[in-house]
Design goal:
With 459 residues, the chain is mainly beta. Helices cover 10% and strands 49% of the residues. The chain has four helices and 32 strands.
Amino acid sequence: MKHILNILAALIVALISTMPSTADCAYDVRHYGARGDGRKLDSPAIQRAIDRCSHRGGGVVTLSPGTYLSGTLQLRNGVTLHLDKGATLLGTTDLDAYSNPDPFVDGLGTTVGAALIVAVDAHDVGITGQGVIDGQGSALKERQARLDNSPEGRRWGRRPFLLRMVKCRQVRVEGITLQHSAAWTSHYFQCTDVVISNVTIRSLGLPHNDGIDIDGCQRVRVSGCDVISGDDALCLKTTSSTMACSDIEVTDMRLKSNQAGIKFGTESMAPFERISISRCHIYDTRNGGIKLLSVDGAALRQVLITDITMHEVRTPMLFRLGARLSVFRKAQDRQQTVGLFDQVVIRNVEAVASDVAQLTPPSAILVTGIPGHRIKGLTLENIHVTLLGTGTTDDARVQVPEAVDKYPEIKTFGPKIPAYGVWARHVDGLLLRNVTFTLKHPDARPKIICEDGSIEVFD
C-alpha cells in the first residue's frame, strides 16, 4: 500500500510540474457563457472570464472565432485579451452599455472618455491576436441621433473610444485590428512601459476618429502600425500637467488621415521630451504632415523626427508655440504659463504637397511663436518639398494673424501665407540646412520669410 501511495505521489508531482503556471493559463470566454453569435450581449461573460483570470494570478482570456457583441470590458491585472483570427469583438450600439471611468475634456471642450475596452490602474495587461475590434461607429451614431435631440457638439462626447489604458504599467497591444471607432480609436493616458506593434487601424467616417493617442505616457515603443483614420493618425498629447510624454520611440509607420499624420498637441500641458520618430510614410493627409504644437504650457524639447516620406499632404509642416492655456481636467489641474519649444530636429524628409490645401496657394512649412515667446533651437535638415506654386505678388504682402490664444490649426493662419517654402515668425536660431523646394508652376512669393527672429540658411 505504501508503495502504491509513493507511486501516486510521484505521479501527482510529475503532473503538477508539467502544468502551466497560473500566469500562463488560458480562459476561453465560451466556457463562461459567451456565445459569439453577434446577437446576444457577451460582455458579462467575457468580463467574468477576465475577472477570474486576474483573480487566479493572470493569464490569457481568449476569444475564439466568432462575433462577440459587447459593451464596456475592463481589463484587470495580469490579463491579456487575445482574439484569434476570425474573432470579432463588436461594440454594441446601445450607449447605456458603456462606462466612463476617467472623464476628461478634450481640446474642443467636450467631456469624453467612455470606451469599449478599458484598463485603469492595472499592470501587465495586453490585447493581442489576429482578430478585429469593431466599434460600429456609424451605426452607433445613427442610433444616438434618433434618441438624442441635443446638438451634435454635445452628443459626440458620449460616444465610446475603442480602447483606453489609464495609468497602467506594462501594457502590450500587438497584431490586432481596430476599426470603426465611434470616437478616438486608442488612448493611452499616463501609462508606463507600453509596447504597441503591428496594429492595423481603420477608423473613418466620423469626426474625432483619432488613430493612436499617447497622452502623458513614458517609455513607449510604437512600431510597424498601419493607420488610416478620420482624425489625427498618431497624436502625442498631455491632457494633464502632472506627467510628461517622454522616452518615446516610434518607427516604421504608415499613416493616412483626414487631419494630421504626426501631431504633438493640441492638448499640451505637460512636457514632450526625449522623443524620436523615424521611418514613417504619411500619405493622402488632408491637414498637416508633421504638426508640433505647444499651446497649453508644455515644454516641447529634445525631439528628433527623421527619415519621413510624404505624398499628397496638404501642408507638410507646422510648428507652433502659443498661449491658449486650456485646462482639461479642471477638478484636478490648474492653468499653466506659456511653455517653450527648443531642441527639435527634423531631418531627411521627402514630401509632395497636395495641390489643394487649407492655404491657397499651398505653403510648405510654417514656424511661429508669439510675441515674447519664441520658438528656439529648431533645425530642419535635408528637407525637400514639391509644391504647386502659383503665388502672386499680392500673396507675398499678406499679414498673417497672430492668433495668440486660438486653437492651433493651419487654417488659423490662412488662407494665405506670404512665403511658399518656409514662413517663420518669433523664432531664435532657426537652422535650415539643405532645405529645398520644387515648384510645379512659378510662384511670386519669396521662398523664405523670417519675421521677428533669427535664421541661418545653409544650402
